[in-house]
Amino acid sequence: MDDKKITRRDFVAAGATGTAALVLAGKAAAATPGGNPSIPPPEMSTRPLGKTGHNVKLFSLGGQATLEQQGTRDESVAIINRAIDLGVNYIDTAASYGRGISQTYIGEVMAARRDEVFLATKTHAYKRDDALKLLEDSLAKLQTDHLDLWQLHHVGATEHLDEIFGPDGAIEALTKAKDEGIVRNLGITGHADPDVLADAISRFDFDCILMALNPSDKHHLPFTEKLLPLANEKNMGVIGMKIPARGRIFREGGITTMQQSMSYVLSLPVSTVIVGCDNIKQLEENISIAANFEPLSTGQKAELEALTADYWDEASFYKRGAAGWGRGQPDDQNTDWMPDF
Questions:
Q1: Cα-flanking dihedrals φ and ψ of residue 122, to 5°?
Q2: What is the pLDDT of residue 277?
Q3: Which of 117, 201, 233, 287 is most buried by a 10 A CB count?
């Protein structure tokens, strides 16, 4: 292992260091099908998802990692079923994840368990007709006749807003779908620039927002400074993403456990966090952390923020001007290269 950086895979192999990692020991057999239903799942607390009327568990499942990869159908379906068995009641995906693979795998489970979760997906098309076509495709792949939340995906530039809110923009598709009852709530997502999202939610009354949050946030373009308070003021459901920053948050001398990063975000005024998982073991560890969550004090949060001061550009690689920008990466309109977990 690199003596400076701990990868997400290394972290999972080593196991979480806190007591939360022990809660699910011996409970892996509880998954269905073929599990032991007599073993109760750990209880996660719930929080209101803004004005949606849904009480969401602290940990929610993101549709990336294994769930967007070809050839992982059986493992993906097992992860999704296990998540629901353990109380997860919010699942987030997007039309672009695996170019539809994620929605397809989730749809296989939704065919039998749709009523057990609040289901969210996204459109990366910012024009009305293109977004409506994506919606039709998403509903078919997800095997459902409605979405609980439909979101504008990866909004990171003023040019995106000009297109979305301009003539024949995607906002017309969102409002049409909600008016017709196909979509129950509307949302927006982004991780590049909090000012762009603040502008967006000032222009339109969205129900939810998915934003990037982890202990490195305060060091560059902080989402917690203006955007998070504005979303709270508007009573929006706030979903935190980029908790492990695709493993880049973990480093010797810095943040070393998922418990640290997730506890930091859950100590903020958010509704839930979404994380994409590689396997069932990782899923169970994350749910265990959420089930044993205790809010951090202001001082404890400050300590975690200080740990990322020397490598914030990597831990916040998804933000404009950080490590992911101008280093040979695709441009900011390509949603595939920057996952939402």
A1: -140, 160
A2: 97
A3: 287
